[in-house]
Design brief:
By secondary structure, this protein is an alpha+beta fold. It contains 5 helices and 6 strands, in the order ααααβββββαβ.
Length: 175
């Protein structure tokens, strides 16, 4: 009578036995852990790039908000200038009424400087002489200390972002 058990010697190796992998594992033993090391190094690099993208993106947004504010403020002040002391006073009060904000219009600018000049190239002074003859140009500058979150090791805890604009009145000389 025949046995229902497979004859392992006659039919070759048993399908239930694990093959001997000593030769294959010794060939790959120098590569063990390579994926872990490569992934760790690339993750550090990718997180650094993501940090740069986030913080530099915030810097560009803040610069754009500051530039929009100083452009608006300098134009509002320049409309008031007429070369007299009253014009300087009206320009200064127009600047104080402009409520420019940053961080998506939630925080007011705290560092704003205003100066007046006789030409668009300068020189500019914060206190023009009395009478301020021909002081028809205003320069407005604003700066913000933007907190850095992800690139602090490279830039420090904050980065200063600033913007400036010059506006003035010019008489029409030709038609």
């Amino acid at each position: 009578m025949r046995s229902l058990q497979p004859n392992t010697r006659a039919n070759g190796p048993s399908p239930y036995r694990t093959p001997n992998r000593t030769r294959a594992s010794s060939a790959h033993s120098g590569r063990r852990g390579y994926i872990l090391v490569a992934t760790s190094i690339s993750m550090v690099f990718m997180l650094g790039v993501a940090g740069l993208a986030v913080d530099i993106g915030r810097m560009y947004i803040t610069k754009n908000e500051a530039q929009a504010y100083v452009d608006s403020a300098s134009l509002n002040a320049a409309i008031q200038l007429d070369g007299t002391s009253a014009g300087i006073t009206r320009a200064t009060s127009a600047l104080s009424r402009d409520t420019g904000k940053w961080t998506f219009d939630t925080t007011a600018f705290s560092s704003v400087t205003t100066s007046f000049g006789t030409s668009s190239a300068g020189p500019f002074t914060a206190t023009p002489p009395n009478p301020p003859t021909n002081y028809n140009y205003v320069q407005v500058a604003a700066s913000v200390n933007l907190p850095m979150y992800l690139i602090r090791p490279l830039s420090g805890p904050t980065a200063t972002v600033g913007a400036a604009a010059v506006a003035g009145r010019r008489g029409v000389t030709t038609l």
